[in-house]
Write a structure and sequence with these properties.
The chain has a single domain, classed as Hotdog Thioesterase (Thiol Ester Dehydrase, Chain A). The protein contains three helices and seven strands; from the N terminus they run βαβαβββββα. It has a five-stranded antiparallel β-sheet. The relative contact order is 0.22.
Length: about 160
């Protein structure tokens, strides 16, 4: 099984918020942002696995502040943990001003599952941990994974 580095699959997208992206309060519609986040998580997972992937779950979708018409939204995704057939993707969202200052809007953790040619879960490449930050991310991801498994066992 191949191994890949975190930087091999990191993905960044930028969106300009247009009037069609706004909710009735004049802020970025949460559903639009969720779609963008899922797309970035999927791209990261595809780049890591070189396979088709599906979203299994989303954790910690917390909105820290709003984004408005003509704001630039930057979304950055990276692999933080891999299991046998699944991986955790951390997706951070920022509102970027004209000077390039980024302010956090959202952080979410996606569990993505790799699929074989028959749409069945299949093994994913191992993740090469290169930095202390990546090691800390891995350890935090293991804790989140255990919490997800506990919630699943308890029916949440």
């Amino acid at each position: 099984m191949t191994e890949r580095k975190v930087v091999d699959s990191m993905t960044e997208t930028i969106h300009m918020i247009r009037p069609t992206h706004l909710n009735s309060a004049g802020r970025l519609f949460g559903g639009t942002l969720m779609q963008w986040l899922d797309e970035v998580a999927g791209l990261v997972a595809k780049r890591h696995t070189h396979m088709n992937v599906i979203t299994a779950s989303v954790d910690n979708l917390k909105f820290l502040q709003g984004a408005y018409a003509n704001d630039m939204v930057v979304i950055i995704g990276k692999v933080t943990f891999v299991g046998r057939t699944s991986m955790e993707i951390r997706v951070d969202t920022y509102r970027e001003d004209l000077e390039g200052m980024r302010r956090p809007i959202n952080r979410a953790f996606f569990t993505m599952v790799a699929l074989d040619e028959n749409d069945r879960p299949t093994e994913v490449p191992r993740l090469i941990i290169e930095t202390e930050n990546e090691k800390a991310e891995w350890e935090s991801a293991q804790k989140r994974r255990q919490m997800r498994l506990t919630r699943k066992e308890e029916g949440f």
